[in-house]
Amino acid sequence: MLFQRLREDIECILERDPAARSRFEALTCYPGLHALVMHRWAHACWNHGFLWMGRFVSHVARFLTGIEIHPGAKIGHRVFIDHGMGVVIGETAEIGDECTIYQGVTLGGTSLNKHAKRHPTLGRGVIVGANSQVLGGFTVGDGARIGSNAVVLKPVPPGATAVGNPARVLHAEVDAAREAAAAKMGFSAYGVTQGDDPVAQAMKGLIDNASGHEHQIAMLWHAIEKLSARSRELPSEECVPQDAHTTEQFDAEALNRLVK
To answer: Is the pLDDT of residue 243 over 60?
Structure first.
């Protein structure tokens, strides 16, 4: 069982980190892997009532790796802690399978009640960006993403993205539509910083505006066809579809103000 978990950990490093060149390198040069292995020892001690020994093993792991995981924390399979320096995972935290955690992350608590669920639960496949803080006994849903430097204080729905301080949840449907429109234009905004970056906001506005042009052009052509066929029967204004824009909608000044 122990060696099976170790093989899983090594394979997930090779899958998610392009800098990893071999299994031997992953085994010997990744502090996130070392911290997880030592956490399993500490967690076993904790579960069998050897509380001081569990804390001591955790303390040694922190000294060796820079990653502090309380022995009471529950961590699933194929979890990848990349780089890892400064990661803190609290006692009642739970991390699901396939999660990825970057450096400087805190899975912390906001309550002083020793018997309460003080730390967050991460669902399956959650990605927690560098230096983000997830504080409280709530759940981050499966497949959610926490942006770098975010401070998350409330639950995050499955598949959503949380960014900012305090973090706000981005609308997954709107983001997916924007990505599809950007890809159609030969440009993907996936790598653009989300949140309060004014340049990113301006780019989003441009993409949203450009994606609406296709619909409006189609409606204009439709209106022209109807005008050609019915110009002798009806006044021209009655031939234009209700959802076809006949006035300029592009607010260049608003976008310019975002990037000043």
So the answer is: no
CA 111: distance to chain centroid? 25
Q: Across the strands, what pairs with 101? A: 81, 128
Task: Give the position of tokens 């085994």.
Answer: 27
pTM above 0.85, yes or no: no
How far is 17 from 250, CA to CA, in rounded Å?
42
Is residue 90 packed enough to be buried (19+ CB in 10 Å), middle (13-18) or exposed (0-12)?
Answer: buried
Segments of the chain assigned to CATH 2.160.10.10:
2-170
Q: What homologous superfamily does CATH list for 2-170?
A: Hexapeptide repeat proteins (2.160.10.10)
Query: C-alpha 217: how far from its chain's center?
Result: 35
Q: With helix as H, strand as E and coil as C, how does 128-140 read?
A: ECCCCEEECCCEE
| Amino acid symbol at 219 | M
- Residue 193 pLDDT level (bands cut at 50, 70, 90): very low
